Amino acid sequence: MERVQFQQEQMLAELKDLVQKGLFTQNEIRQVMKKRTVLETALVRRIPKKSDFLRYAAYEMSLEALRRKRVERLKLPKGPPTISDFALVRRQFQIFERALKKFKDDVGLWVQYIQAAQRAKARALVSRICGRALQLHPNSPALYILAASHELKHLSHAAARVLLQRGIRLNSENVDLWREYVKMELGFVESLRRRWKVLGLTTDTGEHEHMDGLDKPERAEESDEALEEADKNDEQVRAEILNGAIVKTVIFSAVKAVPTRDLFASLHGVLSAYPCPSTLRRSLLDHLHSLLHSRILSTEGSDPDPSNPSTRLDAKGRAQCAKLYATRYLTLDLEGESLVDALRKANEDLMEIVRERRDDDEMASAYAQFVTEWFEKEINEHLNLYLLASLQSLSSSGRSAPLYVAHLRLLRSSHNPNPFPPAKLLKLTRKYVSRCPMDVDLWLLRLEVEYALENEEDMEDADWRGAWEEARKKFMLRSMPADSRRDEIWIWGLERLSDRSLPEQISGLESLLAGTQMDPFSSLSEKLLIRYIRLLHRRAQLAVQAGEPASYIKGDQAKDVSRIASKYLPTERVWEAAFDTYSNENQDVDLPDQSTSSSVVDEQEERGQALRTIYDTWRLISPTAHSSAALKWGNWLVRHGKGGEATRVIANARIVLAVNQDAVVQFDQRWKCIVDGIGNDQNEDGREEGIDSDDGLVD
């Protein structure tokens, strides 16, 4: 407490000054001292918390904001600065300094300190903080970018360049650093352009035109020739700089260091959006895309250094690079005929690449993405029809699922100026699915079309249930990879059956579960079983609501759990979801009033029996499952006033885990967190919510 007392003594002068100026009353000063005492006491605990420091700093920031508001409102006369004018801001910095002594490895805390100093307009302090932070975290690109932006804000291009170059040397593969470096050099070129324009140092006129009418001494002819040669050299250098020579060098170095799709896309975005002359933008974009073509797309230049992992692009990366190169002329400033010509050129280039690579689905996906992006912009309905026709021609000339999917989606899009007849759409959808029968997106589109057209007139041929059954058979192979997305097909139909009665939904799920028993441990079986358990629990709750205690109050829920355990072999994930379902106190049905119905008490006993059955079955899977089940069951027991039984459950779990001491330690920590959380919840329930006494200080 001596440190708290010391900090309190340091506050006396500033608080006295605040009272003398009339900014705070004596009562408010007492509140400030009380709050600061609490916050200071939290900082001197044995194990400090970063949140305590941040809470203290936030309080000082709000106090300083209040002081500034009151100074403006009272219109105090300006005079020499006193201690209260800067003490609150200085205290913020002191709090951050104390925090960084404890948490110097926290980059986020350094960033918050820098931002606080920037808000206080402490330019020199920001530079010092950035230097200290970069010494401790030289591999943090965010700190270099933050420091460089601070230097640029104060027109120090040289310091910003040094910072970014240092960051790139240590983090040469970071795309964000290269992007900010290019952006900084673009700003530097633009500043030189404006400065030379003011000085009259243009590249299209001479620098000494005002001396043309004056007589020149004959003795100075040789020196004049030397000056003219020097002027020509300076003019040539200035012209190269204004034409982007520096920026092109940076782009070349970036591409050499990180020849990836993300870098090209990031630099393309910067060059397209940065405010600069159109001639310079076109020159830089041409340079960037020539590098893209030579290092990524051309056969000779692809993967120039196979030993460098950053130069090895997958098929998707190459496809995206090809799309970026083909759309290089589609800049933001295009409109009218120039936009139409650029879009046509890009579309033709991409179509040619797709035709050359008929078996490249990634390239087809990139083209489909390009068409979809411009189709949805709805620039002109004729352009939409042109893009749709181009996509249809490619779809009809090959077997590419991404093109089929894009074609069907655009036909159904609201931006389609020429809606497709429903009968033809259904026929086309089935045709595409027959060509690519193992594509999930195509099947989902077919199911959506069948479902949407089933109830329309003259569409008796549409049958989404039959199509769903056919799709399930296609995606029921056990040998399918885990990322085949087959689960989406099954879940799609279940969502469409949610409008059926509860018994019909349960019966349908039971039939589906019977079809998944060849692979009971798959993610699909887990998802279906979790839905099945939730439906059974909902049926039990509805029975209670209807006042039918004989049906689901005398042990039937526990019997349901036992039947599931023996018939479906649930995994740990399923048992955890089942426990959460049965232990959930917030039901989605209206239960009878506890004061008037005994069925609620019976239902709670039934809930406990079901949870006990889940625990007894769950813990037998493995020691890890035993620990998870014991924590869940013990938590429920403590919350329902059965602490003695919970203690026995936890002790039994510790015996099972005794062979692994690390597992016992982790188990004890998790149980301690649960008990602490229960205690905090009980304290919050017994405490009336209110407003802190010092909240009135903030206007």
TrEMBL record:
Pfam families: U3_assoc_6
Similarity remark: Belongs to the UTP6 family.
Organism in which the protein naturally occurs: Sanghuangporus baumii (Phellinus baumii)
Gene Ontology CC terms: Pwp2p-containing subcomplex of 90S preribosome; small-subunit processome
Highest taxon, organism lineage: Eukaryota
Region: Disordered, residue numbers: 207-233, 678-699
Gene Ontology MF terms in the entry: snoRNA binding
Domain U3 small nucleolar RNA-associated protein 6 N-terminal: 9-90
Biased segments, Basic and acidic residues type: 207-220
GO biological process per UniProt: maturation of SSU-rRNA from tricistronic rRNA transcript (SSU-rRNA, 5.8S rRNA, LSU-rRNA)
Name this protein carries in UniProt: U3 small nucleolar RNA-associated protein 6 N-terminal domain-containing protein
Keyword terms: Nucleus, Repeat, rRNA processing
Subcellular location: Nucleus, Nucleolus
